[in-house]
Amino acid sequence: MSPTLSVLDLAPIRSSATSGPGEVAASFAESVVLAQTAEKLGFHRVWYAEHHNMPSIASSATSVLIGHVATQTSTIRLGAGGIMLPNHSPLVIAEQFGTLATLYGDRIDLGLGRAPGSDQLTFQALRRDPASAESFPHDVLELQAYFGTESRIKGVNAYPGYGTNVPLYILGSSLFGAQLAAQLGLPYSFASHFAPDALQQAVRVYRENFQPSEQLSEPYVIAGVGVVAADTNAEASELMEQVRRDRVQRFVGRNRDVPFTEDELDMVMASPAGEQILKMLKYTAVGTTEAVGEYLEQFAQTADADELITVQSPIEADARLNSLRITAEAAGLTAP
């Protein structure tokens, strides 16, 4: 049986050198078109990731972006992949996603991560204590209770949120998230699109230790995978090289006033730091319809995944949409 297919949208800002209102507005418009296209093609859901202080990503106010896209789509599931819970109080997140669920019904998902999704300076700017990550399991339970009818804090409820039963997903790139998701009986999403090393071990730990819950009776695994699909293999290879160079430029050159020259970038990519960044792209399907289809099928078996959440990696919006269409064709999706 073929896995369910979804999309993770990082809301990339095309010109991160300026990241002004115009560039960010263009990113939001592209995210709307991507979600509308995914809906028409038959993808299951689109998720958005919380990142802060990153001039190349526009999805920092994740719940606001989800609401914006929800007003311009009809059937596709939308959610956070994920909200970094140490950055927030559970009550505030319950109110935000309770609002979304009240407005858009059972289309809303809430994926939760334990990492701050930012550097230490940004974490301090968020007015959070670094030790807050240690309370992640407790915070997940507190948040889950706000969506039910019995709060874990006497006299405190989430309005909106109360009784909405927004489904939770645990995100992770290590064994910690796998163990927690299994213990709580929640779906588990592994970030193999940027942290590939522990994929198979984490999924095995999750499946072997899963405890059924009110939300989920059987284990459910979502695995991230990059996709660079194009009309020809040569075009796909060229797009993938752009992705590789862009990834290193964004990570290594993040705090530089002037971007690396092409020659400088070649040197950085060949360095140990550059090679480490490029290893993040290990699980990426590259090629035409046939090649992408074969890769996704094999990867689903490797990951033992019920669902693949694809990161359409081409830099330019038109190429990203074309990659999405080819992915749908490769997987045999049909419009709802």
From TrEMBL:
To bacterial alkanal monooxygenase alpha and beta chains. This is Luciferase-like protein. It comes from the Bacteria. InterPro entries: Bact_Lucif_Oxidored, CmoO-like, Luciferase-like_dom, Luciferase-like_sf. Residues 11-302 form the Luciferase-like domain. Pfam families: Bac_luciferase. CDD domains: Flavin_utilizing_monoxygenases.
